[in-house]
Structure formats: structure tokens, C-alpha cells
Amino acid sequence: MQEQQKIQMVDLHGQYMRIKAEIDAAIAEVIDSSAFINGPAVGRFALALAQYTGVRHVIPCGNGTDALQIALMALGLKPGDEVIVPAFTYVASAEVIALLGLRPVMVDVDRDTFNTDIRFIEEAITPRTRAIIPVHLFGQSCDMAPILDFAAAHGLYVVEDNAQSLGAVYTYPDGRSRHTGTLGHIGCTSFFPSKNLGCYGDGGALFTDDDALAERIRMTANHGQRVKYHHDVIGCNSRLDTLQAAVLEVKLRHLDEYSRARRTAAHRYNALLRGVDGIELPVEASYTTHVYHQYTVKVKDGRRDALKEYLASNGIPSMIYYPLPLHRQKAYACDGTGLKIAESLADSVLSLPMHTELTVEVQERIAEAVAGFFKR
Ligand SMILES: *Cc1c(COP(=O)(O)O)cnc(C)c1O
């Protein structure tokens, strides 16, 4: 029998092997210089990422969750202030809101795109609302123009959680385009290894066009100090390692190529799975490019868990992002009335393997197994 390639959700090693020489040289240079904290690669990478996304300031930090926390601290939100977050997302945004003594107010999401939707934000606003955290989930932008207009009309801050969609571009109704993460007052991202721009450990960054906010963000991430040992505000300690910055500097040069590889893989899945009755394929919204952090299908008729098990028994991994909406999590439990879409998505979504190294053969095996399940 022919040895079959083991299928993985994400192939970080395969991706490394293609750029090994560049990465190894960049890492060796950092170790050689021994400038491990705030070495030159950190500033160089921040500048390169600012140029890539077209934003004035990129402030690196320790991880994506820190980025969200630093954003809310820099905006000077006060305990009891309400922050609107989608109920169907990763926990980080709700977590930092709660940690700072703010109140997360959960809203439902759009069924097609899984994204934060103005329709539900409008219903959630109260006199205590101070900020909205739209999450650009799975690789495409939320429809930001209505959210930004609404926020401006009500004096609310917009902090984008762009951990999953770095590289995506949003087009406003007037035809102007901008990168996700540069649309609100502050954008936050993560360089967790499996993210679209991932490093080899933890990393994150904040984006802003506002000079004064950039200064507050820098201070907040650096113990609240502008001048060493002079602490003007309560801050935290959150830095991007020089080694990680060196890795990211190399990988940023490949980001567009990575996004293309993900899009190609997604469209190939679409072609292979189009005829399968039991699932709904991902929807690309007209106002955004899609960089496919995840390729997520909706499984009909309550058969999601059975499909996942069947795939696993055929050597095919899949993941449920996310099995519980935030309001069903013990730590964040609250009234879920009106969060019906988040609930039904949590019960029906399934993410198939998605990464930059997927081959036609592997995708065909995956698609055959998915189709096979529904033919039984
Ligand atoms: C990964 C992720 C984060 C957190 O990033 P870390 O670097 O793991 O802290 C936040 N929000 C979303 C939507 C994410 O996917």
C-alpha cells in the first residue's frame, strides 16, 4: 500500500521548510547581536507592517489578547462602561473587557459571514455603551461602514479584532479600500503561529492612525511610562520578542502569497464540495476580500458532530470554531435571548484543514470523505 501523507489542520513545518534559509538567517542575526528585547527587528517589522497595511502607527505587543486589553486601557474606559462584542467568537475580547471591570454586551452575528452585524449593534446600545469590538472572523471583514457611521453618531470607539483577517481589504460604499485593522480607532491583531501572519511563539500588535492614541498605547504597553522610571498611567508589560519580530519580518514579505494560497485552496474546496447536499459552503461578502483564516462550512440537519467523527475515522482532522457562544460559557454566562444565530452556528459549523501548503491531492481526499459521509 502506498504511504499516504498525514493530513493536518495547519502545516507550520511545511511552510517553514520553504523559507528555512531566510528564517534561519534572521534568527541567527538576532542571537548574534543578542539584542533580545526591543532589538532593531522590532521597529523594522512595525514599520514594514504599517507600510503594508497603510496605517500610521503599528505598536507591537506580546500577543493578540494583550493588544485588545491595551486598546481598552488606552481608550480610558471606566469600570461599568459597556462594550459591545459578538457572541460568536474567540473568548479574548470578552475576557479583557471583563478583566478591566467593563461590561461585555453580546450581540448576534450575520449568519452568512459569521461576522459582527450592525443590525444587532443598534439593538444593544444603552447610555453606558462606550465601545464596539467588531471581530473580523475567519478571514473576511465585517461590513464596517455602517458600524463606523453608527459609532460616530453615538460617540463610540471602534476597536477591531483583526486577529484572524490580517491582509484582508474592506471596500467602503464609495469605492475606497483599506486593510482590516485600520478602519476603526484601534485595530488589534495576533501573530499566534497558526494565524495568517504567524510567528514562532506569541506576538501581537495594535494599529492606529491617531498620533495621541498611538502615544497612549505605547505608554500603556510599557508600564505606563514615556520616560524610563516615570510612570504616568497604570500600564502593563507587553512586548514583541526581537526573535519573533525577525521571523515576522521575513514572513510579512510572503503574506500576499500566503493569502493567495489560502484563497486558491478555498476555491478548490468550493469546486470539490459544490454538489454535496448536507453542507453550506462559506460565503464571500461583496465588500471585502477573504483571506480564509478558516474554511468553515455549516452542516445541516444536526449532523455536524457525526460528520466530524466520520472524518476523524478516515484520518481527516476538522475543528469546531466555536462550540459554545460566549453567553453559554460558564465564565460569561448571561441571557442569550436574541442570540439565536450565534447558537445555531455553534451547533452547525465545522472548519476543514486550511493552510498555505494544502495540495490538490489532499483536498480531493478531504472532499471525497465529506461527500462519502452524506452518501452513506
Ligand atoms: C487568536 C485570537 C485572539 C487572541 O490572540 P492571542 O495572540 O492568542 O492572544 C483574539 N481574537 C481572535 C478573534 C483570535 O482569533
Uncertain regions: pLDDT < 50 for 5+ in a row? none
Report strand order across the widest sheet.
1-9-8-5-4-2-3
Secondary-structure element order, N to C:
HHHEHEHEHEHEEEEEHEEHHEEHHEH
CATH architecture assignment name of the largest domain: 3-Layer(aba) Sandwich
Strand content: 5-15%
The share of residues in helices is 25-40%
Q: What is the count of distinct domains?
A: 2
Q: Outline the biggest β-sheet.
A: 7 strands, mixed
First CA to last CA: what distance?
25 Å
CATH superfamily of the largest domain: Type I PLP-dependent aspartate aminotransferase-like (Major domain)
Gross geometry: globular
Walk me through the topology.
Elements: H1 12-18, H2 20-33, H3 40-53, E1 57-61, H4 64-74, E2 82-86, H5 92-99, E3 103-107, H6 118-124, E4 129-132, H7 144-154, E5 157-161, E6 169-171, E7 177-179, E8 186-190, E9 204-208, H8 211-221, E10 225-227, E11 230-231, H9 242-252, H10 255-273, E12 279-280, E13 295-299, H11 304-313, H12 340-348, E14 349-352, H13 360-375
Parallel strand pairs: 2-3, 2-4, 4-5, 5-8
Antiparallel strand pairs: 1-9, 6-7, 8-9, 10-11, 12-13, 13-14
The structure holds pyridoxal-5'-phosphate (PLP).
Characterise this structure.
The protein is α/β, with parallel strands linked by helices. It has two domains: 240 residues, Aspartate Aminotransferase, domain 2 (3-Layer(aba) Sandwich), CATH 3.40.640.10; 121 residues, Aspartate Aminotransferase, domain 1. Helices cover 39% and strands 15% of the residues. It has 13 helices and 14 strands. The strands form four sheets. It has a seven-stranded mixed sheet, sandwiched between helices. Strands 12-13-14 form a three-stranded antiparallel sheet. Helix 5 links the parallel strand 2 and strand 3. The protein is globular and about 70 Å long. The model has no long low-confidence stretch (mean pLDDT 97). Bound molecules: pyridoxal-5'-phosphate (PLP).
